[in-house]
């Protein structure tokens, strides 16, 4: 039975003030009144976003005014939090968007929007959430870049979003006009030319934002008699990313349908060409190349001659070239908006790089050859500790031969420095032990074993006691493979408590376990199988299951969290060990941190909540109890003050500064440029430099200079935008699972600087 008080009930009594009463006199707030106010604060202006000053915005929690209304909280495209009373329409399933439900909604007194939300039933698919997140990022990028310009009306206008809600959603203004499929055969030549020109302009604007729409078709493009409007960018990809298969013939290009190559703005130009043919001929083409009867349509001759119908994107003109051909003014020809405030800091980055190179006598970075590089046959250089403690001559021996089916016992290994106590350890079979489930060390005697394969397997799982343990010190040991393989590499994660070091390391090693290093020519095995399984079970799997990891406890003795054997091109594997100490231990200049003086490489983990002067982070700061600090991270300072300096007064150990939790600022254009992309499939020094340059500029503009101390003090320091979890935890869980982003970038950079990454030249300025 219908409630007679429901606004949609035809029998609801109407009073003199009822807005649906046709006899009610119109006031300044009604549609059609000549004095009706418009602008960003009024829902009648459909070209402006709703803001917190809107009269229907709820600044304080209030009870719903009607049982059919609820409250809806979301972020505007500028990430300002707002809350409205809302009334929803019926759900429907939009085509081409699996797992997404759409419905109309009325905000406040009458602002109509469309809501696309990810249904609870579809949230088990991480790809579905990633698509909605990517759509929101594309819509926000377009709104921020073009929303204030008249030509921005060619895009669907985003009103707001909430990607942390139980059912994440995006809100848009309702589109005007009707789909082009309803106009087929009814448009004159002038309208057809205007549509083609405006579509070309839309693709040009997308190109300027580094986006490819990928969903331009008769059912998704609307025309209101004056202008076109593209649908929501739910299929958008970053230009240069590997194409994901999407769309059907003839509207999607052959390469896009097959998912071949990388996304290109000229993919959208294929769609424009097919729409132009469709509007003129009244029927769709086959979608495999130039239409068979293209010569019959003289108005399409120029498009055909330009190569617009070519099956390959590389053979089509660029969007700007097509606009010149169509005599359409290019809105980006003179640039739009104000100058980028980060440009001055990018220039400052260049000056700082030059300063450090001059101080260390380093040469410019080498030019990388195209294509996969050959394995590096050169032996590793002797390290500083090799020259101090001996064993450096072995660094120039040829690489070990290929492993035989029945491996022989390892040759007598050279000395190694214990990464815990920084004293040299010589391999001694009398110090071999195994460790049982209770942690007891059991001596291992292999003298009676005559089977080489069994000896090799036992040593793979065994430990070697450090002979330098003295009374009062904690007894410690090293995995035998640490002593019997190539030159070790120790990596320490540095940062105060709660910056996300533990989550970042778990996300890194999770990506490694999934084969994330293999595209770069690296193979990884556990340094100790049992310890690695324990780490995967307790850390990596817990994170992948959406559980927040507990804080790292303070220690009395620094032990590494996990270790890998990393090899490239069949060369001898190198042990890589990772240290993850509590922030309190790193911030104190105590004995537990003495191992830092022997660490080979550092990952400094920066927390945006502590560092960045961005008001949008204030609600998260308040929720988490964290405060912004202009004095930088005290763990950074303590560690950097403890590490020995080399020529030029700089730290010789390679470093990476990882801006963790970058998902909190993912809609900042410079962050979105990198965090929205997957890592390239090969080492790209130019991209590495560009990301470092952008991250430096972003931090220099939004944080105090103290947060850039790792970059200032280290001879070689790259900067990266990363996200270990991809979202904020609620309680002890991440509501939509952990979604690591670009977490291998700092590790790959360190591997390149340390000579472990094939095709990357290690830096020669300072030799450790």
Beta-strand percentage?
A: 5-15%
pLDDT under 50 segments (min length 5)? 1-65, 365-414
Q: Biggest β-sheet: count, sense, barrel?
A: 7 strands, mixed
SS content category: alpha+beta
**N-end to C-end Cα span:** 81 Å
Tell me, briefly, the overall form.
elongated
Gyration radius, rounded: 31 Å
In DSSP terms (H or I, runs of 4 or more residues), the helix count works out at 20
Strand order, largest beta sheet: 19-20-21-18-22-23-24
Let me know the average pLDDT. 83
Helical percentage: 25-40%
Annotation, overall tally of beta strands: 24
What does this structure look like?
With 768 residues, the chain is an alpha+beta fold. It is 27% helix and 14% strand. The chain is built from 20 helices and 24 strands. A 7-stranded mixed β-sheet has the order 19-20-21-18-22-23-24, sandwiched between helices. The chain has a 6-stranded antiparallel β-sheet with strand order 1-2-3-4-6-5, with helices on one face. It has a 4-stranded antiparallel β-sheet with strand order 15-14-16-17. Helix 2 packs antiparallel against helix 4, helix 7 packs across helix 18 and helix 11 packs across helix 12. It starts with 69 loop residues before the first strand and ends in a 15-residue tail after the last helix.
């Amino acid at each position: 039975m219908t409630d007679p008080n429901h606004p949609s009930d035809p029998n609801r009594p109407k009073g003199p003030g009822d807005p649906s009463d046709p006899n009610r006199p119109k006031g300044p707030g009604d549609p059609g009144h000549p004095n009706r106010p418009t602008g960003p604060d009024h829902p009648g202006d459909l070209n402006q976003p709703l803001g917190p000053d809107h009269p229907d915005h709820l600044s304080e929690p209030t009870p719903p005014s009607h049982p059919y209304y609820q409250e809806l909280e979301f972020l505007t495209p500028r990430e300002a939090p707002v809350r409205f009373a809302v009334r929803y329409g019926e759900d429907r399933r939009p085509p081409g968007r699996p797992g997404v439900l759409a419905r109309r909604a009325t905000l406040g007194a009458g602002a109509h929007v469309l809501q696309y939300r990810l249904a609870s039933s579809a949230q088990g698919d991480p790809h579905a959430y990633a698509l909605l997140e990517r759509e929101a990022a594309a819509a926000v990028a377009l709104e921020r870049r073009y929303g204030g310009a008249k030509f921005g009306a060619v895009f669907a206008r985003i009103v707001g979003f909430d990607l942390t809600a139980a059912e994440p959603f995006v809100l848009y203004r309702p589109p005007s006009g009707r789909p082009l499929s309803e106009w087929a055969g009814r448009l004159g030549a002038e309208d057809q030319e205007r549509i083609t020109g405006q579509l070309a302009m839309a693709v040009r604007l997308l190109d300027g934002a580094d986006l490819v729409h990928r969903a331009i078709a008769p059912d998704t493009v609307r025309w209101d008699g004056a202008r076109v409007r593209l649908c929501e960018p739910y299929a958008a990809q970053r230009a240069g990313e590997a194409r994901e298969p999407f769309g059907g013939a003839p509207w999607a290009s052959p390469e896009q349908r097959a998912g071949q190559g990388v996304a290109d703005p000229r993919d959208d130009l294929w769609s424009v060409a097919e729409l132009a043919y469709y509007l003129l001929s009244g029927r769709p083409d086959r979608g495999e190349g130039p239409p068979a009867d293209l010569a019959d349509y003289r108005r399409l001759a120029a498009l055909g001659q330009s190569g617009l119908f070519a099956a390959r994107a590389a053979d089509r003109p660029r969007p700007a070239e097509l606009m010149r051909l169509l005599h359409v003014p290019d809105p980006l020809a003179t640039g739009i908006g104000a100058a980028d405030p980060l440009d001055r800091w990018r220039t400052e980055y260049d000056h700082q790089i030059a300063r450090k190179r001059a101080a260390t006598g380093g040469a410019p970075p080498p030019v990388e050859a195209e294509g996969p590089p050959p394995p590096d046959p050169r032996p590793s250089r002797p390290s500083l500790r090799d020259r101090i403690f001996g064993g450096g001559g072995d660094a120039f021996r040829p690489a070990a031969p290929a492993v035989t089916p029945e491996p022989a016992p390892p040759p007598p290994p050279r000395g190694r420095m214990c990464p815990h106590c920084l004293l040299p350890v010589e391999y001694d079979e009398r110090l071999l032990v195994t460790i049982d489930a209770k942690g007891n060390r059991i001596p291992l005697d292999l003298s009676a074993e005559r089977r080489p394969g069994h000896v090799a397997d036992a040593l793979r799982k065994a430990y070697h006691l450090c002979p330098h343990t003295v009374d009062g010190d904690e007894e410690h040991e090293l995995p035998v493979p640490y002593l019997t393989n190539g030159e070790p590499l120790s990596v320490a994660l540095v940062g105060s408590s709660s910056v996300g070091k533990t989550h970042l390391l778990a996300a890194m090693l999770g990506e490694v376990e999934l084969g994330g290093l293999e595209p770069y020519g690296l193979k990884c095995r556990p340094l100790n199988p049992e310890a690695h399984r324990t780490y995967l079970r307790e850390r990596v799997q817990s994170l992948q299951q959406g559980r927040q990891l507990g804080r790292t406890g303070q220690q009395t003795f620094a032990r590494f969290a996990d270790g890998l054997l990393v090899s490239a091109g069949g060369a001898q594997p190198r042990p890589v060990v990772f240290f993850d100490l509590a922030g309190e231990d790193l911030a104190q200049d105590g004995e537990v941190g003495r191992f830092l003086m022997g660490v080979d490489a550092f990952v400094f983990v920066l927390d945006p909540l502590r560092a960045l002067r961005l008001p949008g982070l204030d609600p998260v700061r308040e929720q988490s109890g964290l405060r912004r600090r202009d004095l930088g991270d005290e763990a950074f300072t303590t560690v950097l003050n403890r590490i020995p300096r080399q020529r030029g007064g700089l730290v010789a150990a390679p470093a990476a500064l990882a801006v963790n939790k970058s998902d909190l600022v993912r809609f900042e254009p410079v962050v979105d440029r990198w965090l929205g992309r997957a890592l390239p499939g090969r080492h790209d020094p130019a991209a590495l430099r560009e990301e470092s340059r952008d991250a430096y500029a972003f931090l220099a503009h939004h944080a105090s200079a103290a947060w850039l101390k790792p970059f200032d003090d280290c001879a070689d320091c790259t900067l990266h935008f990363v996200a270990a979890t991809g979202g904020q935890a609620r309680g002890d869980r991440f509501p939509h699972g952990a979604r690591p982003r670009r977490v291998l970038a700092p590790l790959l950079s360190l591997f390149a600087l340390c000579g472990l990454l094939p095709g990357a030249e290690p830096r020669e300025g300072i030799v450790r």
